[in-house]
Amino acid sequence: MQQEQIHEVKEVDRLRSHQDSKAHLMTTARDPFVGQNRLDSMQEQDWQTQVDCAAPAEWSQMLDLFDDANIYQTAAYGGVRWGERNLSRLVLKCGGEVAAIAQFRIIRPTPLKFGMAYLRWGPLWERRGRPLDPEVPLRMARAIEDEYLRRRKLFVRILPNAFSGSARATIFRSAFAKFTAEDQESTERYRTFVVDLTRSPDELRKSLDAKWRNKLSGAEKNSLTVLAGDGCDEYRVFCAMYSQMRQRKTFETSVDVEEFGRIQEALPESQRMRVLICQHQGTPVAALVVSAMGDSAIYLLGATSDAGLNAKGAYLLQWTMMLWLKERGIRSYDLGGIDPEGNPGVYSFKKGFSGEDICQIDPLAASVSAVSRGMVKAGLTLRRISRSSFSPLQRARMLKQPAASN
Fold first, then answer.
1. 191-358: same fold as 23-184+361-404?
2. What is the DSSP string of 207-271?
3. Does the bond joining 131 to the residue before it have cis omega, within 30 degrees of 0?
4. Which 3 state secondary structure label does DSSP give 204?
């Protein structure tokens, strides 16, 4: 196991083959869905879309160009979770440079021309080291409309990587103004704590809840050792501890840690999840898994043994992770979702970080096909009926993490 010891852790409905090239230029024809001449602020020859041209390796390289990159838009996540043949990748270029990208899951129950294009935590348009440009997401929205709504006749559903009140959310809603926000029940809306990591370590520590900070101080005195890595060996240690925790607590979850192990194996080095393992006298007592990409990170998975609870290993791991994220230039840390009623213990622990309690903006949807729209609505209805069949106790015991839901 290669470890560094520290003390402070995609049937895809591919675009029918173009005779000469898969790349095609966006046109300027009027469209009833848009209601105005598209893309009129710059010369059209400057903007180009490429559909299903990028292989996984190239996609991974492009992903590293964006501050808003995240694990759900990686080729590895899409390929392992949904299957490479069920993915569609759209690249928007301006003057030959990549300006925005989006990886869709394509769902077609039959060979007929209807189905759904699902975009999770995309599109990505925030290029590293550049100011936010509202025209890029606007043009990306039009490219998505052209390809997936009008050309493929799919129902398009987008789960944005944007939180209410943020500049990103404002730009997103403006660019996708022709899409409709889907109503969500409060239990379905992604709510989380986000920690601002731009502050100094001293300021971060002082901002912690007093009880949380005291437990961290206690953990630092418990002769604990923190091991860190992004290899398969470290992840296997986490999986073993997670399995033991599930047997002990007998909770219900849709999280598939083995699937995340396959994702870890497929990820390029720059995008691998960070694993931290807390040991006491050589025995692993706690572990966590975090994805850090672009300028943000998200807490995905955690596990603790009984001994780890007593030694307060989770506190030391989280603090160590925050310091490592700061060193890497990460600006914000998403604590992976909260459910005050269904999982009050985890909620209380995460509240101690004193992060901002915030909700993701509602999913956006659009369709020009009545068949696709009807199919999706029927599916969502069946899903809600299935969820309502759980007893209150079962719902309360479900482990809710963003990694677990589609």
1. yes
2. HS-HHHHHHHHHHHTTTEEEEEE-SHHHHHHHHHHHHHHHHHH--EE---HHHHHHHHHHS-GGG
3. no
4. helix
Q: What angle do CA 139, 146, 128 make, to 5 degrees?
A: 30
State the chain's maximal CA–CA distance in angstroms. 69
- May I ask the CATH class of domain 191-358? alpha beta
Residue with tokens 């898969």: 22
Counted residue by residue, the chain has a size of 406
Rounded to two decimals, the pTM is 0.82
Chosen CATH of 23-184+361-404 out of 3.40.630.30, 2.170.130.30, 1.10.1510.10, 3.40.50.1000: 3.40.630.30
Q: How far apart are CA 239 and CA 303, in angstroms?
A: 8
Residue pair 72/53 in contact by the 8 Å Cβ criterion: no
Q: CA 56, CA 304: separation in Å to the nearest integer?
A: 34
Contact 81, 263 (CB under 8 A): yes
- Neighbouring residues of 289: CB distance < 8 A, sequence distance ≥ 6: 235, 238, 260, 273, 274, 275, 299, 300, 301, 302
| Strand 116-120, strand 155-159: pairing | parallel
Q: Which residues, in sequence order, are bridge partners of residue 158? A: 119, 364
Buried b (16+ CB within 10 A) or exposed e, 144-180: bbbbbbeebbbbbbbbbbbbeeeebbebbbebbeebe
Q: Where are the domains of the chain?
A: 23-184+361-404, 191-358
Q: What is the pLDDT along the chain (406 residues), one digit of tens a residue?
A: 434 333 333 333 333 333 333 333 333 333 334 333 434 444 565 899 999 999 999 999 999 999 999 999 999 999 999 999 999 999 999 999 999 999 999 998 767 677 899 999 999 999 999 888 889 999 999 999 999 999 999 999 999 999 999 989 999 999 999 999 987 765 578 999 999 999 999 999 999 999 999 999 999 999 999 999 999 899 999 998 898 888 777 666 667 899 999 999 999 999 999 999 999 988 899 999 999 999 999 999 999 887 667 788 999 999 999 999 999 999 999 999 999 988 899 999 999 999 999 999 999 999 876 655 666 666 665 555 455 554 443 444 443 444 433 3
Main-chain phi, psi angles of 405, to 5 degrees:
-110, 155
Side chain identity, residue 154: L
Decide: helix, strand or coil at residue 384.
Answer: helix
